[in-house]
Each structure stands twice: as structure tokens, then as C-alpha cells.
Amino acid sequence: MPSPSPSSPSSPPSPAKVLVTGFEPFDGETVNPSWLAVRSLAEAPPAGVDLATAELSCVFGTAIEDLRAAVEATSPDLVLCVGQAGGRHGLTVERVAVNVDDARIPDNAGRQPVDEPVVEGGPAAYFASLPLKACVAAAREAGVPAAVSQTAGTFVCNHVFYGLAHLIATERPALRGGFVHVPYVPEQVVDRAAPSMSVRDIATGLSAIVTAALTTTTDLRVTGGATH
Amino acid sequence: MPSPSPSSPSSPPSPAKVLVTGFEPFDGETVNPSWLAVRSLAEAPPAGVDLATAELSCVFGTAIEDLRAAVEATSPDLVLCVGQAGGRHGLTVERVAVNVDDARIPDNAGRQPVDEPVVEGGPAAYFASLPLKACVAAAREAGVPAAVSQTAGTFVCNHVFYGLAHLIATERPALRGGFVHVPYVPEQVVDRAAPSMSVRDIATGLSAIVTAALTTTTDLRVTGGATH
Amino acid sequence: MPSPSPSSPSSPPSPAKVLVTGFEPFDGETVNPSWLAVRSLAEAPPAGVDLATAELSCVFGTAIEDLRAAVEATSPDLVLCVGQAGGRHGLTVERVAVNVDDARIPDNAGRQPVDEPVVEGGPAAYFASLPLKACVAAAREAGVPAAVSQTAGTFVCNHVFYGLAHLIATERPALRGGFVHVPYVPEQVVDRAAPSMSVRDIATGLSAIVTAALTTTTDLRVTGGATH
Amino acid sequence: MPSPSPSSPSSPPSPAKVLVTGFEPFDGETVNPSWLAVRSLAEAPPAGVDLATAELSCVFGTAIEDLRAAVEATSPDLVLCVGQAGGRHGLTVERVAVNVDDARIPDNAGRQPVDEPVVEGGPAAYFASLPLKACVAAAREAGVPAAVSQTAGTFVCNHVFYGLAHLIATERPALRGGFVHVPYVPEQVVDRAAPSMSVRDIATGLSAIVTAALTTTTDLRVTGGATH
To answer: In this complex, which chains have at least 3 CB pairs below 8 Å with chain B?
Structure first.
């Protein structure tokens, strides 16, 4: 194949059941852009998608329980977890979840684990079961800045991402899923020198990512790497 | 007065005549967010404002001629020049225009002056004749990230800003005016790690700034400074 | 133990055999700060250390062969691989190596793998077998800015780090090792807006890290995490 | 002249009298890199230079008095004021001093002026009386990252720079002078993600700048501008 392109997209089983989660606010914020965008997405879900949403606690342990309950309740084909990455410029589709909790700040229950495994005895990491490059390309084609990220951090976002991947690996092999980090929204940074993105643009990007994840059978062969 | 607040806003002479300018694209870009936002602003001008707009060339010399022609044609009470500051996170209201052209890249006519004055014999700098702090506060209250900036650079934006200030100082003492730098819009940075802001949000911020500039008689006493 | 502190450092078997590697220049640079600093370290090795060094190719595949040959030749107790992370401010001790090559730029042999495993069938990731937090604390105590990093990227640095960890996991269980990324040196960025660190300071930090890695039996319980 | 080059450097009147100032620490820091570097410079002054140094208070008003007293005491041919610009990557030679104090943080006497002039009735700005481009080129040739800066901020550094330029303009027309901002030193940022530079490298750069300022009669015609 001379030029990189996704393998022929086929129609998903209609409608595909998709669970998209956001988080409650943390670290003193009054909103969490992930949940604002997920609610916005739910108001205009992608074509051919039966969309369910859930707001997860920003608490180690509880957040994974919230996620598992939502998966139980909705039996989705695809799960996309979304979280805030304050300081990033665009949407970032996460490549890898690592088996470590190392909290730079306390979670919403005051817990601050240091170098503890997410799952005792679990593997060091799981890769996302998403076509990363096609997801990024789809967001960009929709006009929304996006990139692959090589780290989801070691806080509750990574914790939930690892919990999701472990659930898939050990209990739900047919499920696919991954994690997307999103920037601050403008209202969070009116007086701070940090990048932001409108809720509308975040939701547009998430919609494109959901559709790409459902319709791509072979990922694009384009780089999304980092030299360090 | 115990807490900082703007002096009592009074109704502007109705309607106030305001000229807002943007720039044509430069540096290989296909759009200039300043002009996109100015056009958006013109579709829904602030209450009580008779708004005129002009798109300026991104060419040393010509840009000031474009500005002067637009001022002649519209006889405004207030001029707000707007330009792209790729890499900045929010709107920045410029404090000072300096009498130097020093172009890191060629302008749209291929000119690249180095250390030449904007106006031979002009003063080293002019301050904006805008209530900087009230303008920033108004944008923030509208939910749009904003700050004072201590430098407009040494390219065509600063050139036009200085040209405007010199026109005011030497020919039109009743006119007031200043310069606002705006971030990239998302479509410019879909695959780049740079901050952006939606056209809608930029226009919302500009609208708030225009209104603040027209209605503030004494600027807020709040810091907008930089340690360096 | 009420306050975080390393467990009582004991004298290493004297002298401990340590292999420290750097890389050849890449991406158009004429020097690689990792190799400059490793050579500087070799001129004044830490007390009680029998130090060997090796310069690795910046080529996928070959770099791991270079590393394996150096390990064969020196039978070290500890291996510290060092690489350039242009744009980072301080030394970063890497937490995790991932099983993916995804090259944003070609390596020195012109190869640019996309989403290929470092080791076919290997686990998704390995954690460093270093006391990360004690290593970071030791560098800081020596006056050198340092932090834990959650990603070593997906280029040749991560490739070598994964290769080292796989070697340890599959063939040399008594060996310990990890990866440290270092900033540009000043000569690389005289006309670029990027952070740098002197070769002397990098070497000082590496020396402290080697000693901490050899003498720490239980790592510090202090956070080195990231929220994203 | 086909290629940019400094005008033929001639020997300075031997020895030239040069005053270089640094600042005391501020903003909770325990050291100020400007004063560390100035002391280091004094231990090995540039050839042909009779070097005097002074440490200025980080207090509005007092700092200019300190500077004026040092100028009175030493009658220099050249004054180079040096200050800390935490967050910058390299040495920055300042182009312009503006007539405004706008303090984001209190000075060392607790004063925090907002939008007050440095000199009542003074011009909006003064340009440095240094060959900016030759100074930057000289630092780079010495291996030290450097650039022109378009703003010295609105805190005590800009205040002193303006005070110096006003002194030259109104009382000492034969004096030349300017301002150089320098990065943090490593010890200030061991646990912060901010760039730094060794005292030795800062001093090397300052030495090159002093020499270039003394020996250049016509500045280089190379860009040092910013698009914004």
C-alpha cells in the first residue's frame, strides 16, 4: 500500500454500544472538562452509536469500581475513558497504562498512594485497545488538535485506564477501550498562562475518536512517537 | 476605595464609532485568527457600537497605510488593532509599542528590516491609550483567558501598533486605541503542540474589551506586571 | 519510620562493577550530551566503583547489540544507560520501558519503525530496577535538578532501556539497571530557546545516581508521580 | 558589506572602567544568580577591563539610588546591570526599558507599585545603549546560550534599567549601558521544572558581553526580533 490510510472502514453493528466516562472535578477545580465534554457529546452522539455515559469519582479504587459498575450496567462494545490533563494543548490518546499509583497530590478522598500497584500482581503495563493513530487522525480531520501520548501519568486517570485494560484482559476479551486526556476549558484558566480548548471542540474531537475506534479495523501506519 | 473596581462605567455616546482591524495570514498560514475573529465580532457587535472593520496587509509600511486609510474612512472614537501571537494561551492586551522594526521572518512582501525605526525621529515607545487592566478583567469576566502583555514584538504587529499610537499622538489627540494579540485557532495547530482558542471565544473576548475600553474612565488598580 | 529516608545504606561489595553507557549524536547534532557526561564521569568515577563505559549507536537493533556486547565484556552489577532528552530541564530517571518502537525521526541508519515491538512477544513494559526516588534525591542533594520521568519515549532510548530490562528479566536476574535522560548541553542551544545543563553538572548528577543505586536497599517513599 | 560582521573591533582605551551590578535575592530565593555570576566575573575580569561591581537592593527607588551611588563612586565608561529572569533558558540582552512600575509580587521592602512611572514625566521608554546583536553573538561564540529580549518586565529589573538609561540621557551622555537577564542557577531549581545555567557559564557569557560592548563600534545587522 503506497500511502498510509486506514483499512476500509466497514459499518459497525448498528447501533454500537459505547460507554464514555468523565471525571468529577479535582485539585480545587470547580469543573472537570472531561465531564463537561462527555455531557456535550451525549447531547449529540455520533451516528450509529448507542451512547452511555458515567461520571467517575476522582478517588483511587472507587474510580475503578465506578467504571466496573457502569460497564456491568451497559455492556458496551467500546469504552472510552476521558480525563483532564491541565497544561496539554490538545486531545491526547493514551498509548499505555502502567501498573503504578504515585500521587503528586491527594485524590478527592485524601488518599495519596506512593509507588503502589493498581492491581497487585498485574503486568507492568497494558496497551490501549484502540487504533491510536486513526483516532488521532480523525480528531485532526474534524479540526481538533490531537496527538498520541506516551504516558497517562500515575494518578487516578492512569489508575482507571489500567483498571479498564485489566478488566478487558482478564474478564471481557471482546471489549475494546482506551483513554483520552483533554485540556483545560477556558473558564478554568482565565487568569492563568495555560492552554485550553472549548467544550464544543473537545466534544467534537471525542465524537470523531469514538467513530474512528468503531470503524477502523487496521490502524494507520503513521508515527505518533516521541524521541523521549 | 477598599477593593479594586473600575470607576463607574457611564453610557458611551451612542453609538460609539469603533474600528477593529485584523491581519491577513502570514508565515505560511492559510488563515489569520485576528481577521477570523474580527469578522465574527462584526456579525454580532457589542451593544451601542457602530463597528467598522479592516483587514490589514502583513507588510511593513503598507500595513500602516492600510490602517490610516481605514481611520480616515471611518473617523472612529476607538481603534483596536488585533494580530496573531502564535504560541500565546489567551488574549493579550499590549501595553507598549516600540519604535523598532526587527523582523525574524520576511513580511508578505519579502521585506525583513533589521533594527530600523518605525517612524524616523519618533519617540522610543508609546503606551496604549486603553484601560489595560479593565480590558483584561472584562475579557476574563466573559470567560476568556486574558492578560496584559509587556511586548508586542518587533514585527508588523508592533509596527502597526506604533503607527496607530503615533497617529494619535501627532494628528488625532481625541482618538484612543491599542493592540490585542490573539492565539492560534485550533485549525492552525491540529498537529502541533501549541495552544489555541476558538474563533468564538476570541470574538467574545474582543467584544468585552471594546466595551470596557469605551466605558471605563479610570483604569483598575490591579497588577498586570511581569517580573521580567 | 516517621519521615521518609532511605534505608540504611550499606557499603557495596568493593568495588562494584558499573557499566554506564551514552549515545552517539543523532538528529543532526554534533555531540550527544549523554556521551560527553559519561566520559566526564569516567574521569572521576564515584568512590568504590569500578566503572566501565560504552558509546551506543543511535540505531534500532544495533544499539541493543552494542549494549549486550558491553554487558558481556564487563559483567557489571549495575547498568545505567544515559540518553539525550532535548527540551527537558534536568536529569530524569526513567520509570518504565515500553515494548514499542515508534520513531518520529529516522535513526542514524535511516530506519524509522512505526508501532513495532522492541522484542516480539515481550511484555508491554518493564519497570526500572533502580531505586528511582533515592536516585532523584541524591542528584538533588548534589545540587543537580532531577525528577522521575514516566516515559522514555518510543525512540532508540526507550528501545535500549527495554532491551536492558528484557536482558535482566530473561538472562541476568542479578543485574540491576535503568535509564537516565539528560538535557542538552549549552553548546547545542546557543541560539535556541531550549534549556540546557553543563556537562560537569550532568556528570555530578550521574555520579550521585550511581552511588544511590548501589547503596540503597529500600527506596524512599516520596512521590515522583504525575497527574497526567 | 556582503556578510554581517561587527565593525573592526579596536582596542578599548586601556583599561576601560566597567561597572557590573547584580541584585540581592528576592521572591523567597536564598541566592540571586545575577550576583553570584557578577562575583564570579570579578574573580576573572575580561582582559583590559578595570571592573567594579555592586549588589543592588531589590527595592523600588532604593535600587536606583544604589546604582547611582555606584556610578558616582566608580565613574565607569560602561555599566552592565544584571538581574534574574527565572524561567528563561539563556542570557538575554534587553532592548528597551519602559517607564512603568507594575509589580506582580512585593519587592524586598514590601512595596508593590501598580502602573506608576519610574520617573515622573520621563519618556515612555529608552533603548539600551549597547550593541545588542554583537553582545548576543559574543556570548554565543563563547558557547553560552543568549538572545535579545524585547521586554525586561515591569519589576525592579526594568526599574533599574530605566533608571540607568535616564541617568545616561539626562546627566551622563558619555556613559553607555544596558541590562542582561540571566536564568536560575541549578541549585534554585533542583526540584522544579525550570531551566537553569551554571554560574560559570553565566559569568563566561557576561565576560563576552562586556568585551563586545567595549569593542564594537557598529552593531551587527542580524535579526534579534520577535514576531510578537
So the answer is: A, D
Q: In 3D, which of B8, A150, B110 has the Cα closest to residue C155? A: A150
Reported confidence tier of residue B61, pLDDT bands at 50, 70, 90:
very high
> Is the pLDDT at D4 greater than 80, yes or no?
no
For A190, which residue in chain B has the nearest alpha carbon? Answer: B145
ipTM: 0.93
CA distance B53 to D127: 34
Determine the average pLDDT of the residues in A20-49: 97
Listed residue (B149, B56, B38, B137) closest to B98, CA to CA: B149
- What pTM was computed for the model? 0.93
Q: Is D159 a catalytic residue?
A: no
Residues 105-124 of D with CB under 8 A from B: 105, 112, 114-115, 123-124
Cell 550521585, located at residue: C208
Contacts of D4 in chain C (CB under 8 A): none
Under 8 Å between Cβ of B220 and B5: yes
- The position carrying cell 555531540 is C31
pLDDT tens by residue, C54-105:
999 999 999 999 999 999 999 999 999 999 999 999 999 999 999 999 999 9
Contact B124, D125 (CB under 8 A): yes
- Nearest Cα of chain B lies from the Cα of A14 at a distance, in angstroms, of 30
Cα D225 from Cα B158, distance rounded (Å)? 11
With CB atoms and an 8 Å threshold, state whether B189 touches A145.
Answer: yes
Write a three-state SS string for chain D.
CCCCCCCCCCCCCCCEEEEEEEECCCCCCCCCHHHHHHHHHHHCCCCCEEEEEEEECCCCCHHHHHHHHHHHHHCCCEEEEEEECCCCCCEEEECEEECCECCCCCCCCCCCCCCECCCCCCCCEEECCCCHHHHHHHHHHCCCCEEEECCCCCCHHHHHHHHHHHHHHHCCCCCEEEEEEECECHHHCCCCCCCECCHHHHHHHHHHHHHHHHHCCCCCCCCCCCCC
- Per the structure block, which three cell numbers stand in for D56? 543592588
> Structurally, what CATH architecture does the domain formed by D16-215 represent?
3-Layer(aba) Sandwich (3.40)
What is the CA D176 to chain-centroid distance, rounded?
12
Question: SS3 for chain B, per residue?
Answer: CCCCCCCCCCCCCCCEEEEEEEECCCCCCCCCHHHHHHHHHHHCCCCCEEEEEEEECCCCCHHHHHHHHHHHHHCCCEEEEEEECCCCCCEEEECEEECCECCCCCCCCCCCCCCECCCCCCCCEEECCCCHHHHHHHHHHCCCCEEEECCCCCCHHHHHHHHHHHHHHHCCCCCEEEEEEECECHHHCCCCCCCECCHHHHHHHHHHHHHHHHHCCCCCCCCCCCCC
Tell me: pLDDT of A5 over 50.
no
The Cα–Cα gap between D166 and D64 comes to 10
B111 Ramachandran zone, left/alpha/beta (phi>0; psi -120 to 50): beta
For residue A8, the one-letter residue type is S
Residue written as grid cell 560592548: D213
Which residues touch C129 (CB under 8 Å, ≥6 apart)? C165, C168, C175, C176, C177, C178
Q: In 10 A of CB D110, how many CB atoms?
A: 7
Tell which residue, D153, D159, D157, D80, has the closest CA to residue D119: D159
- C4 interfacial to chain D (CB closer than 8 Å): no
Min Cα distance A114 → chain C (Å) is: 6
Asked whether residue D218 carries a pLDDT value surpassing 60, the answer given is yes
Is A186's CB within 8 Å of B201's CB?
yes
Decide the pairing of beta strands B16-23 and B78-84. Answer: parallel
The string of pLDDT tens digits covering residues A117-139 is: 999 999 999 999 999 999 999 99
Sequence-separated (6 or more) residues with CB below 8 Å from residue A92: A85, A146, A147, A148, A149, A180, A181
